[in-house]
């Protein structure tokens, strides 16, 4: 009984760390998009600097999970829960890196006036923020239906990304001087789209946790 209590406490600590990582990723994405809209280079630099804290949280998940495996020798679903926590923390850390990549674009733009109003990129980011929240909630609640929702949300993000690329291509054709900035904005769309992919990965991990079978939500 004592071992089980210790194991459950360790799992709870891991869950809390993953939740904190998710909150930080969501904030980094929101802040990087605001920095892009406002040309705020100082905010972009702060986002980049804070990324190391996310890396430290991922390391804590690894340390606690490894200790649980060594001392508790979990099997079946309990073992899957820890292994999936490792995978989720890795997905979240990568999401943080991609948010940093958006911030780096802000610095490269160096206060340039944007070639088009930012409408669809913020819409993408808003959708992806919801995906980050719901993917982690699906893990915490062990909610397979919510995990499957990631695939539908990812399709919406992909559709917006395609639309953004078409618009940017049209702008570049009309005015070749916009090519450099248009490419940077297309990179931002790609970074956000990749964050959505990682949120979908988390959904797949939750389905695997509950069923023992890994689906392909990320088509």
What would you say this structure looks like, in words?
- The chain is mostly helical and 219 residues long.
- The protein is built from 6 helices and no strands.
- The mean pLDDT is 93.
Give the helix/strand layout:
Layout: H1 2-38, H2 41-72, H3 76-109, H4 120-141, H5 144-174, H6 179-211
Which descriptors apply to this entry?
219 residues, 86% helix, single chain
Number of helices: 6
Helix content: over 70%
SSE-based structural type: mainly alpha
Overall pLDDT: 93
Distance, first to last CA? 43 Å
Rounded to an integer in angstroms, the radius of gyration calculated over CA atoms is: 19 Å
List the secondary-structure elements in sequence, H or E. Answer: HHHHHH
Brief write-up:
It contains 6 helices and no strands. The protein has 219 residues and is an all-alpha fold.
């Amino acid at each position: 009984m004592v071992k089980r209590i210790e194991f459950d406490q360790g799992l709870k600590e891991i869950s809390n760390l993953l939740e904190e990582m998710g909150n930080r990723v969501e904030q980094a994405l929101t802040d990087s998009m605001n920095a892009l809209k406002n040309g705020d280079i100082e905010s972009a630099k702060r986002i980049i600097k804070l990324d190391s804290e996310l890396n430290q949280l991922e390391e804590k998940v690894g340390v606690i999970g490894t200790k649980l495996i060594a001392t508790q020798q979990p099997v079946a679903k309990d073992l899957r829960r820890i292994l999936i926590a490792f995978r989720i923390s890795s997905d979240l850390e990568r999401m943080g890196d991609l948010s940093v990549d958006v911030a780096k674009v802000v610095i490269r733009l160096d206060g340039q006036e944007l070639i088009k109003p930012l409408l669809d990129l913020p819409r993408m980011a808003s959708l992806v923020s919801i995906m980050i929240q719901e993917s982690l909630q699906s893990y915490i609640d062990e909610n397979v239906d919510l995990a499957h929702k990631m695939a539908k949300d990812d399709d919406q993000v992909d559709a917006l990304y395609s639309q953004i690329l078409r618009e940017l291509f049209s702008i570049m054709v009309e005015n070749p001087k916009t090519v450099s900035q248009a490419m940077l904005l297309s990179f931002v769309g790609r970074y956000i789209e990749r964050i959505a992919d990682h949120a979908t990965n988390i959904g797949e991990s939750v389905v695997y946790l509950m069923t023992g079978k890994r689906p392909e939500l990320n088509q």
